[in-house]
Amino acid sequence: MRSIRTDLAAEARDFAPEASGVRHQVSEDSIVSVTRVFIDTEQGALALGKPVGEYITLDAPRLMERDTDVFSRVAGELSSAIRSILEKKSVKRVDAVMVVGLGNRAVTADSLGPKVVEKTLVTRHLYEFMPEQANSRMRPVCAFAPGVLGVTGMETGEMVQSIAKRIRPRLVIAIDALASRSTERLGTSIQLADTGIHPGSGLGGKRAGLNEETLGVPVLAVGVPLVVHASTLSRDAVSLLIQRNGGLKDEEEEEKLLSLVDEVVSEKIGPLVVTPKEIDVIVSDLASLIAKGVNLALHELEPDEIEQFMS
Hints:
alpha/beta; Rossmann fold; 12 helices; 9 strands; about 20% strand
């Protein structure tokens, strides 16, 4: 079977459309399409390489146009998707939520999480120390960016577990960069997963998972594909070359050739990942969009009210 390197359940399903124990729903319009993938069984989880759970992917190619109306529409869809998961997890408006921004703020393609935290409307301190200043339409929200192991010397999972044990949130929202199978999805797709996340997964790291099993509370992972593996680009180039030259008679023969490409890339340049040259603008825009979606989902406030509180 062809090796699929992607963090997106929607992409994994595209390569295993007949997988047992997997359901999906798609709704779309001219701005954003919403794909829901439900992995119901361990057999489905094995086929897609993802844990059992629900995955929601928002695809909005027009985000690259940087149109404010498009950003507002996608932020609204993100807010609705987050609220749907909060409802399924029985998280009430008065329940505390902790937002965790995963990644390295010094590496642009990995700085999405920390940048979202900077734009998150935090209110827990009001309820703790200034209850008279707390708006009844707000919920207690706290947020932090734990950094990465190479900078702090501490596992991200250890830090989040310790703080969650102290704060006792009803739900954790973890933001991180992801890797896609397609360059077309870079910066234009957002995935939500109620299964939690492995910090650094988008850039090849494999740290202890942040999920309900490790934290004791539900974990909603929100990620955006910002990198693609070099081996993926190599495979795509070779596949296109094969197609333009009439293809190969045997699918197994083609897979052997593509596996050889993976081997050569691995030997010559290692686990290289590639990101768009406009990554700084993309991350800045998406951090604002995701923060807006999160803020709207967690608080019963209008967008202009949130902007006033954040100014």
